[in-house]
């Protein structure tokens, strides 16, 4: 289980962003009586999502720095940039963009900026997940070929 922790963290981050942004929030605007109510609920959900992003990102960074070799360095180093980038984007949306949207200050502009930053965070999380899956596949292939070589000797 510990060997697969990076994949689980990356998947939780990417899929939570996907479900919230592509399914939950659009359904709020369809089913709640007013767009204002849907917007207020969406703001609360996006705030909760920011904490999920921080937890998954911090977990990934700790895994990358662990003394255990859970993720090969050639995958962990580039993924670290995207984890940090995604975390910074999440914090930027929460601390700079969301307050302006909630205050309905130039709503169209800040909504577009927030959506673009959320999309960028989502792309970072997907890239990290791809890296973690590739790292796990490479590790399994190396383990499998090593076992085969030992058996042939």
Key structural traits:
153 residues; mainly alpha; 4 helices; 88% helix
Q: What is the overall shape? A: elongated
Range of strand content: under 5%
Kindly report how far apart the N and C termini lie. Answer: 30 Å
Low-confidence stretches: none
**Element-level helix/strand string:** HHHH
The radius of gyration computed from the alpha-carbon positions, rounded to a whole number of angstroms, is 19 Å
Q: What class would the helix/strand composition place it in?
A: mainly alpha
Task: Describe this structure as you would to a colleague.
By secondary structure, the chain is mainly alpha-helical. The protein is 88% helix and 0% strand. It is built from four helices and no strands. The protein has helices at 5-31, 35-65, 73-102, 107-152. Helix 1 (5-31) runs antiparallel to helix 4, helix 2 (35-65) runs antiparallel to helix 3 and helix 3 runs antiparallel to helix 4 (107-152). The chain is elongated, with a radius of gyration of 19 Å. It starts with a helix and ends with a helix.
Summary of the model, kept short:
88% of the residues lie in helices and 0% in strands.
Q: How do the helices and strands line up, and which of them pair or pack?
A:
Layout: H1 5-31, H2 35-65, H3 73-102, H4 107-152
